[in-house]
Amino acid sequence: MVLSDVLGQNKSRMDKFKNDVKNHGISCLVSKTVQKECEDKIKRTTDFLGNTLKDVLVAYLEGIRGPTRDLTSAKPSNNDLRIIEEAFLTINQSAREFDLFSDPFQAIEEWIVTSLDSEVTKMSKVSLSDFVQRLTATVLKETTRLLSDFETLVELEGDYVMKSSEIPDPVALGNLLAIGIHQLDAAHISSVKSHVGHKGQNAIFITFDYRSILLKGAEITQAGGIVCCDPIYGLSHIR
Amino acid sequence: MVKMATSSMEYPSSALRYGLLSIKPIPYEEIVKVKGIKFKTTGIRFEPEKQFDKYEDFIDFRYYQIFERMPLPEAFSLEKTRQHFVETAIKTFNEDKELQNELEKKETSLLGFVSFLRNRFESRVSEYYEIEANRFLHSNLPLSFFSQIAMVLNTYQKYLSLIKRVVRRCEMLSGLPGIRNRFGATERQLKEMKQVLSPLIDKMDSCLRELHALKLYVILWSAKDIDEVDHPEFLDITKLDQAYFLEYFNSYTTQLRNMRRMIYDVSKDFDPEIFSREIASSNTTTVLLSKLLSSDIE
Question: Which of A31, A193, B24, B128 has the fewest Cβ atoms within 10 angstroms?
């Protein structure tokens, strides 16, 4: 939920939730396990993007077959778009047979093609190596913004969120793992159980993860004793 | 070839320390002629408080601090390597006439001096991101490493915004209309300003020193010899001792985190907007990151 909020996703739901927090004096806590998972996710995503830029974009533009092209002197052309087409068709054939939408490569492909297309139509073009360098710099700039906003929200407690030092409750963790909840999700939810035990306060786990958590909500409550819900229903569960 | 531009990032803390902390107000009177009529004007200018260490001494000490704990590859002699970087830094500083002119001008306006540093940094920040991008493209280090390195750029923008705010408040409060003892007010405000700025400048100094040490460690162990350190061909993670690399990286990130915490705390009193949201959800790169973060990348 915190990452989603930083990225401006699910805005209307988050606005409703933040109003509830503000108007009803609700404490919104983020466990260390959630903070760590988000930081790891940002790192993994950044590296995935970096590897795609270097191992796919640069490698194919330089020439995967035949002699290597010097990108410092080559200017972007329509043919480079065809090279990108070939690259993304080749590297991720198997994923595309099934599901284009959830394939992370397709998001990068769209972003690269849009940027390259715009460069191709310019009168004064930069070299291909400068083009790739600028794309990479844009990613760096954007990831530092993301890291900065995430840090301000969670680590610096600069908005509606406070850090929690609770560690997962071992009994609840075991029960959740036993019903097939993923290790990380089980750790997050069982940290709420610890909070309830230590503080004696009613607490729930809120998330936008329908697939892994919310659709298994009844089972989770039975096994771990914690209610999980979408942020817009949070107030209704603790009122 | 990796770009190794020595940026003004590498000597700003000494410039800010010299320009804002080691100064005292001096009242002055002068006669000016307007249309042939003489007028006496009074004002306050700022002069060095004490004999300030020369930039050469500062930079020499900085590299001494870095190299005294850094293991060097066999092809490098400690003395020659240190000398190389000290000489390069001094040469870059001496060639920066723009900064030296502004350091002279700060006698009359501290805010003008800080604004100059901030505007110059803002005008070059895209280039600094490109330098890090270039380093990534000529390395086998992960992009997340460079995004951590680039966090200092994001932090430095906030730092300069905050410093400008602090200095502006000082100048504004000492120049309020109706103050009888303007010199006394300036002295008082300057003292308060230094109390706020001194720990910030010290902490940024430590942060930049750790960053510089980390970068130098990676470069020196990737380069074949001293001739290559200014333009290394490739930054090679396999040539680094992982224990040292991690130590340098952790040391830098700890300093950075402390620095950001301090900027955040001080900015509450001066300008909380410094930490307002930076991500714009409509930006195409943000959309890309949103999609990737929502997918299952293992």
Answer: B24
